[in-house]
């Protein structure tokens, strides 16, 4: 099913190689409130950019960390999650993940394990935060134990996109974790992807050299024929 979503070209993601830009992805079932959480955090200052060609939405956010400007791109699924699988390019170069479930819908909590498994296939080491959304519907839910995050050793937050509870904390923590990961990354997949990109670049350069040689040979043959 993931193949139904077009691959995002590397040129769209090269910017994440620079020190001052990070990519944070959101995962979770449809209608758990991922977009609402981001919009609540960004409020009037956000600029959603619908990339309908690739079935995702970017939320751009500018901030300052330790005196340095940082540009954060929050990636939202924009409907891809209905396939229960994301295109690999959604994960490519991500520096952190915010994984959301709806406390009112048990199935969205059960499905966290599937989302987490897929995340780790593509991004084995990036920080991941688990978010229990919609606690405003019944605050008693905060007394319940949700052991998934504890079992995986992940930070856990009770939040509400409706009233703003813990929303700022979640995304501020995600940004700081993403920057820390990027600075100290030893992620095997990062290394593999860098090597593949270098290989592709070298292949293109070699191909370009072959084309030039072929053109020179053609010109020589045309000269002899004349």
Automatic annotation (TrEMBL):
Comp. bias (Acidic residues): 208-226
Q: Pfam families from the entry?
A: Ras
- By its UniProt entry, which SMART domains does this protein fall under? RAB, RAN, RAS, RHO
Tell me if Nucleotide-binding is a UniProt keyword of this record: yes
Q: Which InterPro entries match?
A: P-loop_NTPase, RabL2, Small_GTP-bd, Small_GTPase
One term of GO molecular function: GTPase activity
Q: Name one GO cellular component term.
A: cilium
Biological process (GO) annotations held by this record are: cilium assembly; microtubule-based movement
Q: Which SUPFAM superfamilies match?
A: P-loop containing nucleoside triphosphate hydrolases
Q: Which UniProt keywords apply?
A: GTP-binding, Nucleotide-binding
Q: Where is this region: Disordered?
A: 200-226
Similarity comment: Belongs to the small GTPase superfamily. Rab family.
Which NCBIfam families does the protein's record reference? small_GTP
Q: What is this protein called?
A: Rab-like protein 2B
Organism this protein belongs to: Silurus meridionalis
- Organism ancestry: Eukaryota, Metazoa, Chordata, Craniata, Vertebrata
